[in-house]
Specification:
- It is built from 18 helices and no strands.
- With 441 residues, it is an all-alpha fold.
- 69% of the residues lie in helices and 0% in strands.
- The chain has one domain.
- The longest helix has 27 residues, at 2-28.
Length: 441
């Protein structure tokens, strides 16, 4: 009897350790890839010690789980026919390794009570980053590293823009939830936080990709979750706020106007828009020469290098990333890779078809990744790719958990007790069945 109680206690401890490590992964991701990697390794060790292989194999039958694994498998097999150095092949395969975490995280958070903590931890970490960004902008002497852009204390403004865009909609969703729970002070705080993220994108560090994706994500959220009258009122308010912001934010105007200027530029000096168009045109040529299975894993840079032989090119024209996720997959794995990528995105969107609060967050994460991947390779990129993996997996696990609850535990996930979580009482624990310490996650 004592032995059974001891084993149950150890399983409970390891399960919760894995949950806490995912929370720490969410906290560290906006700041340090090194620290994030350490927490990820520890999480994997903690999870493997308590995983139920039989139940996990059943979870792998879901397309949302086996499709990411298939993409990684394609990257491994694609090394065999790649005409590129083995270092490049291994590096490109490594960028796909994160996809293996999707089925593991979905499996974990089907059985965990800490899903909402992961999202709140990421929001809290980005809020600290937001404060440092504003501080950098008001006083550039506070830049953490001398080579960084003002207002971008770590990483780059594309990554920061992805993080802040998600936080804008996440904070807004929390504000709506708090209002429905009749907690107006929390609602106003989250609304103010959302505006702080939005104003940072406008005045401090304007990522053009994020600025363009904002109205797309807004349409997705309003058309799906609001009736047309409320949506119309919201659009009018946004137009008014946007007009005022446009008049006051010179940085925003410069970033948007530069798109047309760079596109129409006839100067020999390469521009950001011009370089990207060059990447895409060359990428289409590469795809045309191997449309079915592509050129193999890690071959992109070698293709650009061979194309530059005998030509006068600048360093920026030889890259290992065409800044478009579909073209990235098409070059390396042809039609097969592109088909797997888009079927995976669709499968992940289908998971969040229900009109629940957590489905809203899942839709944002997937939609943003799809749209931003028109201009970048955000599945292959480290931070952006892991944001997708964590966001989709945790949200999918939470949705799956509530779908499988017995009728007596049926709850409305659209309005979780988030205030209780913020106050330290445990968030979504009230809406789930009693946790069995002896059960293996």
């Amino acid at each position: 009897m004592n032995r059974l109680a001891h084993d149950s206690g150890r399983a409970w401890y390891k399960s919760h350790t894995a949950d806490h490590l995912v929370v720490l992964m969410a906290v560290s991701l906006p700041w340090s890839t090194t620290i994030f990697g350490i927490f990820t390794a520890l999480w994997l060790i903690a999870l493997v010690t308590v995983i139920d292989i039989f139940q996990f194999r059943k979870r792998l039958l879901d397309p949302a789980c086996w499709l990411p694994v298939s993409l990684f498998g394609l990257a491994v097999i694609g090394m065999l026919w790649a005409d590129a150095p083995w270092g490049a092949r291994v590096h490109a395969t490594g960028s796909m390794t994160k996809l293996l975490a999707i089925p593991l995280l979905i499996y974990q958070f089907e059985r965990s009570e800490s899903g909402m903590r992961v999202f709140v931890a990421f929001l809290a970490s980005c809020t600290v980053l937001l404060a440092v960004s504003w501080l950098n902008w008001f006083d550039p002497r506070t830049i953490l590293f001398s080579a960084r852009t003002v207002g971008v204390p770590v990483k780059n403004w594309i990554t920061q823009g992805v993080e802040f865009t998600l936080c804008i909609f996440g904070s807004t969703a929390l504000s709506v939830t708090m209002w429905r729970e009749r907690r107006p002070y929390f609602a106003l705080c989250f609304l103010a936080l959302s505006m702080a993220f939005l104003l940072n994108l406008a005045f401090v560090a304007s990522s053009r990709t994020s600025l363009v994706s904002l109205p797309i994500l807004l349409l997705i959220s309003t058309l799906r979750y609001l009736d047309w009258r409320r949506a119309l009122m919201l659009y009018l308010a946004i137009v008014a706020i946007g007009t005022l912001t446009w008049c006051g934010a010179s940085n925003l105007r410069l970033r948007i106007e530069s798109i047309q200027q760079q596109y129409a530029s006839t100067s020999d000096q390469p521009t950001s828009v011009g370089i990207r168009l060059l990447y895409w045109s060359k990428a289409l040529t590469f795809v045309g020469s191997a449309p079915l299975v592509g050129h193999g894993t890690g071959s992109i840079r070698s293709l650009f290098e061979r194309d530059a032989i005998g030509k006068t090119v600048v360093e920026e024209q030889i890259v290992a990333n065409p800044h478009n996720q579909t073209l990235y997959f098409a070059i390396e794995w042809g039609v097969i890779g592109v088909a797997l990528l888009w079927v995976m995105w669709i499968a992940h969107l289908v998971m969040f078809a229900e009109k629940r609060w957590i489905s809203w967050l899942g839709i944002f994460v997937v939609s943003q990744n799809i749209f931003d991947s028109l201009f970048n390779s955000h599945i292959s990129d480290y931070v952006e790719g892991w944001i997708y993996v964590l966001g989709v997996s945790v949200a999918a696990g939470m949705i799956s958990k509530f779908r499988e609850l017995p009728a007596c535990y049926s709850v409305q996930v659209g309005a979780p007790k988030i205030a209780a979580l913020i106050e330290g009482a445990g968030g979504d624990q009230q809406s789930a069945p009693p946790w069995n310490p002896a059960s293996r996650i």
